[in-house]
What does this fold into?
Amino acid sequence: MATIAPFARLSADHVEQVRAAASAATTADGVEPLSEAFVLALPREGDHLVALDGASVIGYASTVADGSLEAFVTPNHRTKGVGAALLGTALERRPDARPWAHGDLPASRALGERLGLQVVRELLVLSRPVQTGDEQDPPLPDGFVHRTFRTGSDEEPLLAVNAAAFVDHPEQGSLDPAGLAERMDQPWFDPEGVILLEDGDPSRLAGFHWTKIDPPGGPVGEVYVVGVHPDLHGRGLAGPLTRLGLAHLARRGVTEVELYVEADNAPALATYGRAGFERKAVHVMYSPARSSEVHAQVQG
It folds into this structure.
């Protein structure tokens, strides 16, 4: 019988066990059980729940300040009630928490239904193969130029345009200097993969396309974030910005490019559709009530 134990801070051993268990879940399911933000937060103080079989970690859940929750169970300990115990305990501690089911796997769907949760948000994964010609930078509208990120001077302008572009986004809009620095410290960060768009206005960046290849040198690249300053909406910049990132990723040698987009973001879906992206997977967010302010994830 698993023991569900709360921790304000995980030990170094627990952190490594959670990472190893998450890797095993990814291999079994084809989808990662913890989002980037939660992986980065593993060593930090927080509301951590660990499912233990003796001294071995067999499941994990975490809830952050805004009510976001993510959880998973190791593949060889599923169908034993561990996932229900983890998620049930997390919801008892934070009744406003809301679960993501990454990949919308049947087991996650069944668990959500059993606990009376409702789908309130869908996040699509779109993908396309790299094609001949993708390596060429597209033409930009008159007056616009692009360049790559300069570490040490572009952090503040990037955060400013990100905040303006994603003011209503529950996750991306909260990026702050500490979060940016944390991501810049990851092995996958490449300043040449952060493409900045300028239009001669010294008060702000026009937009940016942040790309990602994780692991570095791997075959799959990601359209990590594309943002256009609200002052410049309607100028036809999203398409060229997307193509600039595709060109960088193609020149880096990836064979596939993927991205994440909200299912109800019609303008973004139209932009990515024109660029050849098609649906690859879906992640759904559950909630005890119909709300989309915070999120959680459960797998297993």
Remarks:
- Residues 70 and 144 are 41 Å apart (CA to CA).
- The two ends are 16 Å apart (CA to CA).
- The domain at 3-123+285-299 is CATH 3.40.630.30 (Aminopeptidase).
